[in-house]
Write a structure and sequence with these properties.
Length: 265
């Protein structure tokens, strides 16, 4: 395990921005899923964990932040300002909070909720956040807070025991970092992110009755793994790209040991 941690600590090289699962995001057939243009799709407030999985090709809606206010207007009141940040910018802000946090506590989750605002957690946001987490892990632990360090230790040790392919096949180190990063993000945010990454489906979702597919609340954040990863997802890319290095059943074992799987699934 220490060998793999050393390998991770020594990774300081180019980030393959246009390789890997990001190819799915740039594909013309799936581009509508990741649009930042305005759309009429409504979205819920974040009274509880909410996220939106745009399977129907709907664009990610623009949103209004309830934390951004202008100066007093002529009547002495306040009015809201439109949040013009892109999904990528919001995801990177979330990743920065995760990177610097000393504790994965309610205070951190409140800061993340305030940063996200009324945007839905959709597939693009989770993938962009994962992309930023991968970059941080590639850079090493300098400046990394205690929360991410602890999550990285847990994910690295578990992945090394279940997959163990970096030591046998050093050329697969990028794939190892990717799955470790997914484990880190799930450890810090909850197993629900794994559904948006294509690994399975969260049970106990309570959907809004407006036909949008948005989730009002989760009664459980554990997933039931999918026998086949969701098409055009991070999970589908990773499984296909590193199939030669993945022992049978190791993905399930990794997620189970990370405490991401619904008991009894």
């Amino acid at each position: 395990m220490e060998t793999v941690r050393t390998m991770l600590g020594c990774v300081a090289r180019r980030r393959a921005r246009h390789q890997g699962y990001t190819e799915f995001m740039d594909d013309e057939k799936t581009a509508p899923l990741y649009s930042d243009e305005d759309d009429v799709v409504p979205y819920p407030s974040h009274e509880a964990m909410s996220y939106y999985y745009p399977d129907d090709g709907a664009a990610t809606p623009a949103t209004t932040s309830y934390d951004n206010y202008s100066d007093n207007d002529e009547k002495g009141g306040y009015h809201r300002q439109e949040d013009t940040r892109t999904v990528e910018e919001v995801a990177r802000e979330v990743a920065q909070l995760l990177f610097g946090a000393e504790w994965n506590d309610d205070a951190l989750q409140t800061r993340i909720s305030d940063t996200v605002g009324d945007r839905p957690w959709n597939r693009k946001m989770v993938e962009c956040c994962l992309d930023a987490v991968i970059e941080y892990i590639e850079r090493g632990r300098v400046g990394m807070g205690g929360a991410m360090c602890a999550a990285l230790d847990k994910a690295t040790d578990t992945a090394d025991e279940e997959f163990a392919f970096p030591r046998r096949h050093p050329e697969s180190l990028d794939g190892f970092i990717a799955i470790v990063s997914a484990g880190v993000l799930a450890e810090l945010q909850g197993a629900w992110v794994l559904e948006l990454l294509g690994f399975g489906e969260v049970q106990g979702k309570q959907e809004l009755k407006d036909g949008t597919g948005e989730i009002a609340m989760l009664t459980s954040d554990k997933i039931v793994p999918s026998p086949v990863p969701k098409s055009n997802s991070f999970a589908a890319w990773w499984t296909k790209a590193y199939d030669a290095y993945i022992p049978a059943g190791s993905i399930y074992a990794f997620l189970k040991r990370m405490d991401m799987i619904e008991p009894g699934a």
